[in-house]
Amino acid sequence: MSSLSWSEVFAVHRSRRGIGEQSLLVDRGESGYRNLFLADGRILYMGEGRRGHQEPLGGNLRLLLAYREGKPLRVFLRERPGLWRDLGLYRVEAFRYELWSEEGRYVYWFTLAPGGCAEAPSG
């Protein structure tokens, strides 16, 4: 996989925020968010908002809707400052809203699964 510059990522992502209209930015903690990269290729992605309880607004609402609609999102991984890698399409497979005892606040955790074909969840 080739590396991308921030300008190439921004041309697709169109936002400095982690959750864009059709894509997500992930890193290994440099942003202050605690993304976890699981051995099976999935990513545990912390929702938007670094203070107080996270709300189902903005980027969090976008991810909740992507889950409901089965809409895949492109994921870009920050490898180092100014250097990114396109990880491809991921779908929001599941989410939890729970107390993060470390910070004493409620946060969203979205499970992102690799794959561009997504079916709407039943229920």
From TrEMBL:
Pfam families: SRA_ScoMcrA. Residues 30-85 form the ScoMcrA-like SRA domain. It comes from the Bacteria. InterPro entries: SRA_ScoMcrA. This is ScoMcrA-like SRA domain-containing protein. It comes from Thermus thermamylovorans.
